[in-house]
Backbone:
């Protein structure tokens, strides 16, 4: 187990280094002079030179990367040009907003979709299975932004049950904050239910055909006992991996949902930074997003042996 964990952590470290290098190169491949793009066509030569010096653009690329990496290791991602605030502070502030949408949505989707996926597998080929698979397919086929707009039109505009758009922090007004979060969370929840349900069904069907399940049934155990005690743990492994991918992807910034509901999350911060040509903020957001994805999947890998001990043994 410890060898497995050390191997995974050892793989994550060079991955993060490669991610940092890729982000650094990607930002510098954007056409045009960053200083000129940020200051506009009316900027004079002195202002351009000062900004280039501030951004460290006059040094060679290897020097720029080493200086930037040193600052990153100290938690300094630079200063946002458009917001005049530290990039790290902006990212953490917006990430906290995104997490309030993503974490409840993924948790609720898992609690709903995993039992339904196992039920569909247990009732394979019957009406229950067909109805659940059809529902999951429908939820998957609907674009998230379109689903969000439908929820807004019906529950916010027509019925008036929830605010139309916006965001309120929990510290300001917890009740209002919950009302603003219901529709975005529901939008993500419905979409992810389809993904998780189908994966759970597929992995459970595979497990149900294994010899040890047949042996458990031959011992006279009830179907409920077979499903919960024997099939669940093995079948949840692939779903657990999928949850890591979903969580990492959503935490990286649900820009579409945040745009539809005008929520000041991480995804919207990145979009705004791109339009504002805020290079330090773009660079910081991309690095943070990629790092979150790597770390979430590292966490998933470290816990995977709980569901499949053969992984650690190998």
Residues:
């Amino acid at each position: 187990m410890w060898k497995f964990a050390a191997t995974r952590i050892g793989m994550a470290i060079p991955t993060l280094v490669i991610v940092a290098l890729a982000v650094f190169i990607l930002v510098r491949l954007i056409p045009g002079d960053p200083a000129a793009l940020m200051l506009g066509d009316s900027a004079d030569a002195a202002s351009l030179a000062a900004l280039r010096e501030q951004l460290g653009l006059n040094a060679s690329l290897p020097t720029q990367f080493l200086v930037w990496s040193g600052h990153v290791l100290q938690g300094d991602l630079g200063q946002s040009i458009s917001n005049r605030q530290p990039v790290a502070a902006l990212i953490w502030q917006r990430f906290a907003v995104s997490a309030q949408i993503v974490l409840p949505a993924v948790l609720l989707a898992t609690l709903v979709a995993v039992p339904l996926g196992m039920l569909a597998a247990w009732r394979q080929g019957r009406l229950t299975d067909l109805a659940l698979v059809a529902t999951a397919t429908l939820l998957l086929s609907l674009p998230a932004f379109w689903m969000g707009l439908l929820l807004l039109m019906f529950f916010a505009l027509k019925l008036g049950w929830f605010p139309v758009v916006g965001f309120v922090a929990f510290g300001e007004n917890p009740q209002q904050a919950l009302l603003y979060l219901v529709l975005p969370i529901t939008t993500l929840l419905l979409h992810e239910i389809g993904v998780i349900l189908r994966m759970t069904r597929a992995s459970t069907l595979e497990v149900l055909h294994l010899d040890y399940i047949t042996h458990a049934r031959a011992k006279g155990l009830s179907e409920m006992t077979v499903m919960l005690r024997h099939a669940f743990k093995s079948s949840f492994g692939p779903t657990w991996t999928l949850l890591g991918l979903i969580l990492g992807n959503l935490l990286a910034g649900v820009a579409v949902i945040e745009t539809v509901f005008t929520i000041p999350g991480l995804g919207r911060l990145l979009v705004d930074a791109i339009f504002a040509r805020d290079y330090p903020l773009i660079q910081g957001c991309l690095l943070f997003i990629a790092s979150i994805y790597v770390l979430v999947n590292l966490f998933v890998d470290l816990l995977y042996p709980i569901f499949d001990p053969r992984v650690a043994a190998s």
Notes: Residues 93-312 form a domain with the MetI-like fold fold (CATH 1.10.3720.10).
